[in-house]
Amino acid sequence: MARSRLTPERESELYTAVLDLLREVGYDALTMDAVAARTHSSKATLYRQWGSKPELVARALRANKPASLSEIDTGSLRGDIEEMLAHTDDCQMDKDAALMRGLAHAVHTNPELHRALRELLIEPEMNGLDEVLQRAVRRGEVAADNPALKLVPHMLIGAFIARPLIEDQPVDRAFLSAYFDAVVLPSLGV
């Protein structure tokens, strides 16, 4: 897709507006007209830049993420996890979780959104997590045939879904740290 030249600042403004609108009205009610009005831009510019609403939403969510997990390498799996958690912001994590809950239904009814989120958000995150885990295998911290290796993403997603449902509490660093120590690391034999 041909992308025009937007400054990083302008792109950031657009992404912030998209995320704000998502929180306010949800995915289904979010329109390119609303994004254009909020950002004082034209729909033509938005379509030229991103091609579609699902692409714009996925890129806005991706831009909101910190650096790739694969860039974290402290020399131990426990250290890598502690470093990942050190770069999380409780308030932002709660906002992100609310966004993802809001998108969960839309993903099931919109294949284009599902594809865009998988391609731009989910797969890069899973690839980064897999690299962190494979480094732990290469260092001998985790057995290569440990069946839990394939289930770590499922465990993490479960934590993000279950805590608000069971405890009516948001997922925060303290909870994730305890969850890694009690569930994820022991299942990996660490």
Write structural notes for this entry.
With 190 residues, this protein is an all-alpha fold. The chain has 2 domains: 8-61, Arc Repressor Mutant, subunit A, CATH 1.10.10; 67-187. It is built from 9 helices and no strands. The longest helix is centred in the middle third of the chain and has 28 residues, at 111-138. It is elongated and about 55 Å long. This is TetR family transcriptional regulator. Keywords: DNA-binding, Transcription, Transcription regulation.
Helix content: over 70%
Uncertain runs are none
The largest sheet, given as strand count, sense and whether it forms a barrel, is: none
Q: What is the succession of H and E elements?
A: HHHHHHHHH
Choose one word for the global shape.
Answer: elongated
Count the DSSP helices: 9
The helix/strand class is mainly alpha
Distance between the termini: 45 Å
Strand content: under 5%
What number of structural domains do the residues give?
2
Total E-strand runs = 0
Average pLDDT works out at 87
Using only C-alpha atoms, the radius of gyration works out to 18 Å
Keywords: DNA-binding, Transcription, Transcription regulation
Organism: Streptomyces gardneri
Pfam family, one: TetR_C_11
DNA-binding region: 31-50
